[in-house]
Amino acid sequence: MVASLVGRCQGTVTLLRSVPYHAHKNKVYLPLDGLMKHDVSQQDIIRGKQNSNIKDMVKEIATLATSHLKEARNLKKSVPGSARSTLLTAVRLKYHIFII
């Protein structure tokens, strides 16, 4: 369960960090329901616009990643000591969420 939550967080963070790269290639992989909810078009992302709607959408997605990470941390005591080193990526994820 903990590894699944860390994996979800990592996938979400990777999605957000890759937005500029994919936008440069005219690709948008952000969830359409999130784009529609915040009234953001794929062209806004591709053109690199930075308005409050886009910031709100990114914040919402980052909050989802943070919730996965917090839940994983709450369950870390259930992970055997010999396997805890595999969860070290969670430290880096917290940093990436912070800078997003």
Structural overview:
The chain is mainly alpha-helical and 100 residues long. Helix content is 67%, strand content 0%. The protein has six helices and no strands. Helix 5 runs antiparallel to helix 6 (89-99). It is elongated. The mean pLDDT is 91.
By DSSP, the count of extended strands is: 0
In what range is the share of β-strand residues? Answer: under 5%
Shape: elongated
Radius of gyration: 15 Å
SSE pattern: HHHHHH
Ranges with pLDDT <50 over ≥5 residues? none
- Give the terminus-to-terminus CA distance: 25 Å
Q: Mean of the pLDDT scores?
A: 91
Largest sheet: none
> Which structural category do the helix and sheet elements fall into?
mainly alpha
What is the number of helical segments per DSSP (H or I, 4+ residues)?
Answer: 6
Summarize it.
By secondary structure, this protein is mostly helical. The protein has helices at 2-17, 19-24, 32-37, 42-46, 52-74, 89-99.
Keywords:
single chain; mainly alpha; 67% helix; 100 residues; 0% strand
